[in-house]
Automatic annotation (TrEMBL):
<protein>
    <recommendedName>
        <fullName>Pinin/SDK/MemA protein domain-containing protein</fullName>
    </recommendedName>
</protein>
<keyword id="KW-0805">Transcription regulation</keyword>
<comment type="similarity">
    <text>Belongs to the pinin family.</text>
</comment>
<feature type="compositionally biased region" description="Basic and acidic residues">
    <location>
        <begin position="245"/>
        <end position="258"/>
    </location>
</feature>
<feature type="compositionally biased region" description="Basic and acidic residues">
    <location>
        <begin position="265"/>
        <end position="274"/>
    </location>
</feature>
<dbReference type="InterPro" id="IPR039853">
    <property type="entry name" value="Pinin"/>
</dbReference>
<dbReference type="InterPro" id="IPR006786">
    <property type="entry name" value="Pinin_SDK_MemA"/>
</dbReference>
<feature type="region of interest" description="Disordered">
    <location>
        <begin position="129"/>
        <end position="150"/>
    </location>
</feature>
<keyword id="KW-0539">Nucleus</keyword>
<dbReference type="GO" id="GO:0071013">
    <property type="term" value="C:catalytic step 2 spliceosome"/>
</dbReference>
<keyword id="KW-0508">mRNA splicing</keyword>
<keyword id="KW-0175">Coiled coil</keyword>
<feature type="domain" description="Pinin/SDK/MemA protein">
    <location>
        <begin position="26"/>
        <end position="129"/>
    </location>
</feature>
<dbReference type="Pfam" id="PF04696">
    <property type="entry name" value="Pinin_SDK_memA"/>
</dbReference>
<feature type="coiled-coil region">
    <location>
        <begin position="166"/>
        <end position="198"/>
    </location>
</feature>
<feature type="region of interest" description="Disordered">
    <location>
        <begin position="1"/>
        <end position="27"/>
    </location>
</feature>
<feature type="region of interest" description="Disordered">
    <location>
        <begin position="198"/>
        <end position="274"/>
    </location>
</feature>
Amino acid sequence: MMDESSGRPLDSADHQPRKKLKLTEADKKRSVRMFGALMGTLSKFQDETSKTKQTEAAKRRAAVESRLQAKLKLEAEALHMLRAYEVEETNLKQQVIRKTDELGHLSELHTIKFANRLACSHYLRTSTSKLTDADQKEPPLTTYGRPRHSEQPLFWLPHKLLPEQKEIIENQRREAQAEVAEDQIRWEEERLAKEEQLEKLQSHRDSRLAEIQAEKARARANADPTSDPTTANASLNPMTNDSPELGRRQTSEIRQDTPDVANDNGRDEDAVEY
């Protein structure tokens, strides 16, 4: 028999049907076991790959969270320190202002006291009435019902002075001048001591304010993201830079800076007028 397409005789084996392999029950079970083992290996490989990816992502997220938490902690501590420094600055300035006002007020009071003492010495005055034992038990009342603890003398001057009145006034003037001179000496010593204390307080304030400014600069440097070492390390880590979550978190952060307390230039704290 000839092949029509090729023109060559056909072999008897070519037109015989192929025999099907007969699988025994053991061969079928063996095939099932091999297929199950293959599927198990593939499934295990997929699980391990998925777990590895999840673990790496979790590690990256944990690293990002750790850096952000450390950064927020530094900023919170720096903000707390800045507020404490500002309170200390205000207290130092207010303390100097109070001492300066106190010294000026005392100087004004002593000036008025000395002037009144000398002015009253040019007048005659009434003698205070002596209280009896019954009056001393209960203080007398004024017109408005308030207790009057002492009788205030009245200062007066007649149109024409008698010789003895002139002598009284001269004695009063000499006594007043002597008393005022002694009081002025004592007050001058007290004023110099208070001025020395004020100068020491001002010197301490100035030195401490300079230290506070330096400490505030360091606190701001710690709170500044550009100087944060964790941020610097993150910029050098390619795995961290490839994470889109880190970029979103960093752009959403808000840094709170506390402005400096404005210096009180409207008042000279060191000036003391007398």
